[in-house]
Each structure stands twice: as C-alpha cells, then as structure tokens.
C-alpha cells in the first residue's frame, strides 16, 4: 500500500531509579527553572501512577508553548509535570487488572506477556512523541538477541527522532555479564549501562553459633531476632514429586517437602522468588547468587536475604555439624558501599553484536537499588502473588539507569537548546567520570566512556557532531542499499551512493573501537572532527594512554581554535602485531586545553571471529516477499521485546 515503508514481524521487546543524583555529583542543576523547565522528556515504558508524589508538580510552570501533546485514557489527569500521556495496545491483549489508560496497574498489559512490549506500539509512540514536541526520548526496553537496524523498532524510531533533533537514550539490557549481550546498539542512540551507588541494603543472617553473615535484600519483615530451625533445601526433598536432594537444594517449585520445611528457615542454592518456601509453610529463606556478585538487592514475600557462595558453604557446614541448627534474618539496613561505583553483573555487555567498530554501551549511570515510584496495584516483590502494596519501591536494572542518562541529556539540552542529538551525546560521553578498570574484567564493554557527570557535560569544550547524512553513509558501508536504507529512514530521498562494504572508522563517534579478526595484525585509521563549544580562542593538545601491544598516533597532535563553532579534523592510527583470542585492550585519547577542558575518548582493541567486521543484513533479513525471519531463537521469532 502507498505510504507503507516496510513490513517487519511484530516481535515483543523486553522492558529494562534519592541517593543516586548526589552520588554522581548532581544534587541540583545550576541552570535555573526558566531554562530547565523548557525541556520535555518522552518516556516510553509501561505506564505511570500520576497521583504518586514523584509526579507532584508543585512549583512547576505550565508546559512550554511548543508542546502539542495531550492526555489520553480514562481516569487519568495530567499536570505541569506529567504534561501528556498516551497508551498503546496494538495486539489488544488485556489482563484482568489492566487499565485502558496510561495508568500502570502491574507493569504489563497481560500477565502472560510479563515485562513485554510490542514493536508496533513502540513505533506509534515514537511517532506521537516526535509530533507532540519532546526534546529527549527515554526508552527502557529492548530485544534479548541481536536484530538488524532495519527490523528494530527502537533503531527505526530513534533514527526518525534524530532527524528531528531528538536524542534517544536507551537501556543496555539486563542480560549481563555475558559478552555481546548489549541491546540498543544503534550509533545514533545513547546506550546506557547500570552501575552501583554508594548505598546498599544489607539483611544480615545470624546463625546459632554466633556467626553473622552479610546478605543483600530489601527485607522489611521483622522476626524480632527470634531464631528458627534452619534446614538446607536438599534435606527437605519431596521424593513423591521426583525430587532428589541435589534438585531440592535449589528450592524449585513442588520439590520441597512441606512437612520438613514448615516453620523453618531454608537455605537454597540459587536465587528464588520465595514463593516456594511460602507454599511449603517456611518462615524465611537464605539464598545464593549464582554469579556471586551481590551488587543489588531485591524484595521478597517473606524474610529473605542473598549471601555469597563462600558464606553459603559456612551455613551448610554449620547445618551439617549442629544437631539442631537455628538462624534468624534481620531487617534490612542501608549501608555505605565503599566499592561503588561498579557496573552491576546483570548489566548487558559489549562488544556490539551488529557493528563491532562501534563501542557499546556508550555510558553508565546509577541502576542498582534505586528508589522509584510504584503502582499501588502492583506486587512489590519478585513474587507476583505477594499481597502487600507500596507507593515506592527499590528497583535495579538498566531501566533505572537509562532515565538518569535521559535526565542528564535533558539538562545539557536545556543549556544548549540548539545542539544536535550527537553533540549532546558527545558531551555526556567525553566528560564522563572514569570507572576503575580493576573492578571490571570486560572494561569499556561494561561501562563505555564511564559514569554520567551532568554538570561537567554542560561545558565539554569540544563535541563530536554527526548528522543524518553521516549515519546514512555509515549504514551504506554496513551493507545497506537504497531499498533497505529507506526502511530505516522512512524517506524516499535517502540514497546509498555506494554499497561497497567498509569499516565504521569514519563515523564521527566519541569513542574508538577496533575489531581485529583472529590472527590478524592491529591496523586501523580513524577520522574524526571536533567542534569548538568552549572558549572562543583555545588550543587543545592530545594525550594518550595506550593499550598493551598497541601503538597510537594522532595527527595533528595540537588543535587550535579561534572561534566558537569552528571545526578541526584529526586522524587516529592504531597499529600493532598480530593478535589472537584477545578479549579487550583498553586505552584513551584525551584533548586538553589547559583551562579545565578534558575531552576524553576511550580506545578499545579486541579480537573477533572472521566475517564479523560489518553489520551487513543477511538475505533472510532483507527478504520483503515473506514475513519469515531466520531468528536465532523462538523468543526472537515470537517478536518479544522486554523490559530492562
């Protein structure tokens, strides 16, 4: 039909935040209400509870004159903070508690599609947000597995937003710590990982022998220090259900003998919801994190805590050497985390699964144990049958880190309303707080350029700018032709003048990534252009930290500017010996003007398998004659996008 740009499967996407702003050094903005109040953020997520104190509009002015949005849906009223709201349900899936409104009942339209969103709805929301006049779009959802740009509704929608001067900030995903797990990897978006803050919630375990073990949990159940009998799940195996002690140790559903668990605290060998213990009439649960990360806390429907594998051994030894083992679980307390900031284990990691020469994620932001508004209709814990109700909750995920970065982007936009999306993104990346590499084996693949620093991003000195034409050139070198290119741009004027595959080294990106095929030498030449947004008259000198076995040259090594808006181009050459099985080597290039501006770009070199240099669409992906998709899993074929 005329007007149809392309047809793609309607795959579901997965959905991906007090103290955190103080932690990143941004307790209060310095621009003032007149400027900050002119920026509108469009949030694509599962809804909102407008009566929450988080959305109190006291002291806020009316929406800016440019705003064209409105409130749509029954029993929903906007104010001067929530200035517009719409809801989408293209598949017409409604659960019994769902409300035909932007009002959130339980985080999803349908309990059978838990934490899921349809791409048709996402694209419609992008279109409305752009038309309504938003300045920044925040998207905390994505696919679990790689998908080409032309079939990714977030990549497509964010490209259209970029054309209108709108930056899209999106979550990296919660599939870490596995490599190549990052989602939302389009170079025209800001991809946000999640890190800890200097506050953690500790729920201690006190054993009968006096040992006190540290665990993490949002535990508000008070056992008043009363000790209860303690049992390992494997010693309460439900043999009638076919359980063995090894299986029952994980406390899987139906595998615990309720007669043995009743009125006891249960030690489980894995993270569980706690509902299994409740059904078996248990009092509490001590769990083990299989990744042994202990970097974020969760809520459970009974007294609970999560301990390390090392402490699990201590508990099990105590049980084995004591005739009548007992324990109690204490109410959670807020402790200072002196190890922060570090990227949490669940935060999805690079490398970029589609375009290896573009470093993703771009940046990291607080995403562990974040205080957030909560629907009073929703269950507060992992257990969906939890009958408690709260107005606020402590949540972890890149769905929490992404809004932090979106707010930082909005702050920069307020100070520089005429800056492009790429310039805002560059400012955030090049001024980010450097993360400690010793805490992260995967280095920049976990945190990108570093942790957001909104105040510094307001005055970055130099920016790496990019336009629609730059991204079109990038896509054409990635194997797109005019037909497939237009599936992303939505414009018949978009043309690939050349379809010769090439590397992404000349895209004006604020970071540098060189993917080297196994056994090949290190060699790459990058071209970059920076725009002066600092002092009108300034001179920047380059400094470098060089990865092991990698040599870097920058020409010219000095950039001199005589006015604001002036642009200078430089080249970066990376070279070195043949490498194989090298996961990541890390360094940085920093431009300094001697007046406080330090424009830092990470440099990473790593090995890839042969044939992974370009993000070229395969024939099955570009076949528009059928709606067949040769996806890597059934989850992909069903079209599910999920919350992060």
UniProtKB/TrEMBL annotation:
<dbReference type="GO" id="GO:0005576">
    <property type="term" value="C:extracellular region"/>
</dbReference>
<dbReference type="GO" id="GO:0004252">
    <property type="term" value="F:serine-type endopeptidase activity"/>
</dbReference>
<keyword id="KW-0720">Serine protease</keyword>
<feature type="domain" description="Peptidase S8/S53">
    <location>
        <begin position="115"/>
        <end position="448"/>
    </location>
</feature>
<dbReference type="InterPro" id="IPR015500">
    <property type="entry name" value="Peptidase_S8_subtilisin-rel"/>
</dbReference>
<dbReference type="InterPro" id="IPR000209">
    <property type="entry name" value="Peptidase_S8/S53_dom"/>
</dbReference>
<keyword id="KW-0732">Signal</keyword>
<comment type="similarity">
    <text>Belongs to the peptidase S8 family.</text>
</comment>
<dbReference type="Pfam" id="PF00082">
    <property type="entry name" value="Peptidase_S8"/>
</dbReference>
<feature type="domain" description="Subtilisin-like protease fibronectin type-III">
    <location>
        <begin position="506"/>
        <end position="605"/>
    </location>
</feature>
<dbReference type="GO" id="GO:0006508">
    <property type="term" value="P:proteolysis"/>
</dbReference>
<keyword id="KW-0378">Hydrolase</keyword>
<dbReference type="Pfam" id="PF17766">
    <property type="entry name" value="fn3_6"/>
</dbReference>
<dbReference type="InterPro" id="IPR023828">
    <property type="entry name" value="Peptidase_S8_Ser-AS"/>
</dbReference>
<dbReference type="InterPro" id="IPR036852">
    <property type="entry name" value="Peptidase_S8/S53_dom_sf"/>
</dbReference>
<dbReference type="InterPro" id="IPR045051">
    <property type="entry name" value="SBT"/>
</dbReference>
<protein>
    <submittedName>
        <fullName>PROPROTEIN CONVERTASE SUBTILISIN/KEXIN</fullName>
    </submittedName>
</protein>
<dbReference type="InterPro" id="IPR041469">
    <property type="entry name" value="Subtilisin-like_FN3"/>
</dbReference>
<keyword id="KW-0645">Protease</keyword>
């Amino acid at each position: 039909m005329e007007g149809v740009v392309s047809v793609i499967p309607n795959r579901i996407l997965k959905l991906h935040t007090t103290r955190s702003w103080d932690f990143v050094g941004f307790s209060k903005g310095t621009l003032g209400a007149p400027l900050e109040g002119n920026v509108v953020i469009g949030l694509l997520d599962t809804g909102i509870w407008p009566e929450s104190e988080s959305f109190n509009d006291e002291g806020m002015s009316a929406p800016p004159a440019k705003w064209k949005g409105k409130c749509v849906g029954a029993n929903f009223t906007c104010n001067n903070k929530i200035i517009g709201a719409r809801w989408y349900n293209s598949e017409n899936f409604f659960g019994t508690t769902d409300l035909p409104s932007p009002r959130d009942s339980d985080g999803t339209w349908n309990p059978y599609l838990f934490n899921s969103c349809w791409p048709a709805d996402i694209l419609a929301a992008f279109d409305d947000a752009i038309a309504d006049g938003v300045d920044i779009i925040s998207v905390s959802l994505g696919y679990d597995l790689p998908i080409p740009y032309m079939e990714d509704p977030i990549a497509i929608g964010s490209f259209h937003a970029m054309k209108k001067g709108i930056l899209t900030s999106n979550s990296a995903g919660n599939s870490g710590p596995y490599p190549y797990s990052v989602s939302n990897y389009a170079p025209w978006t800001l991809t946000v990982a999640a890190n800890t803050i200097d506050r953690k919630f500790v729920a201690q375990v006190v054993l009968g022998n006096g040992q006190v073990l540290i665990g993490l949990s949002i535990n508000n159940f008070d056992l008043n220090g009363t000790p209860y009998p303690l049992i390992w799940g494997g010693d309460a195996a439900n043999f009638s259900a076919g359980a063995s002690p090894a299986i029952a140790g994980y406390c899987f559903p139906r595998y615990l003998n309720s007669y043995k668990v009743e009125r006891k605290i249960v030690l489980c060998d894995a993270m569980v919801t706690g509902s299994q213990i409740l059904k078996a009439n248990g009092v509490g649960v001590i769990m083990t994190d299989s990744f042994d990360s202990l970097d974020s806390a969760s809520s459970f429907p009974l007294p609970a805590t999560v301990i390390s594998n090392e402490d699990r051994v201590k508990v099990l030894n105590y049980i084995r050497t004591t005739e009548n083992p007992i324990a109690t679980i204490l109410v959670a307390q807020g402790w200072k985390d002196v190890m922060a900031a570090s990227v949490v284990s669940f935060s999805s990691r690079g490398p970029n699964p589609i375009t290896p020469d573009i470093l993703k994620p771009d940046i990291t932001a607080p995403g562990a144990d974040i205080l957030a508004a909560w629907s009073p209709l929703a269950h507060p814990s992992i257990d969906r049958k939890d009958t408690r109700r709260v107005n606020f909750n402590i949540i972890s995920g890149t769905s929490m880190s992404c809004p932090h970065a979106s707010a930082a982007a909005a702050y920069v936009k307020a100070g520089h309303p005429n800056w492009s999306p790429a310039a805002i993104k560059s400012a955030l990346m090049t001024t980010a707080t450097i993360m400690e590499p010793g805490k992260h084996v995967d280095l920049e693949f976990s945190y990108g350029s570093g942790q957001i620093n909104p105040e510094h991003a307001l005055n970055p000195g130099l920016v790496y700018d990019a336009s629609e034409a730059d991204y079109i050139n990038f896509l054409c070198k990635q194997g797109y032709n005019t037909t497939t290119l237009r599936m992303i741009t939505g414009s018949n004027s978009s043309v690939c003048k050349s379809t010769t595959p090439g590397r992404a080294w000349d895209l004006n990106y604020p970071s540098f990534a060189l993917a080297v095929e196994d056994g090949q030498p290190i060699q790459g030449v990058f071209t970059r252009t920076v725009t002066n947004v600092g002092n009108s008259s300034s001179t920047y000198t380059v400094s470098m930290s060089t990865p092991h076995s990698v040599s870097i040259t920058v020409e010219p090594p000095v950039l001199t500017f005589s006015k604001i808006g002036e642009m200078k181009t430089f080249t970066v050459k990376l070279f070195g010996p043949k490498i194989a099985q090298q996961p990541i080597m890390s360094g940085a290039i920093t431009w300094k003007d001697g007046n406080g501006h330090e424009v830092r770009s990470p440099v990473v070199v790593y090995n890839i398998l042969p044939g992974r240099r370009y993000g070229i669409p395969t024939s099955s992906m570009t076949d528009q004659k059928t709606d067949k998709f040769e996806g890597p899993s059934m989850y992909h074929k069903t079209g599910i996008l999920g919350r992060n």
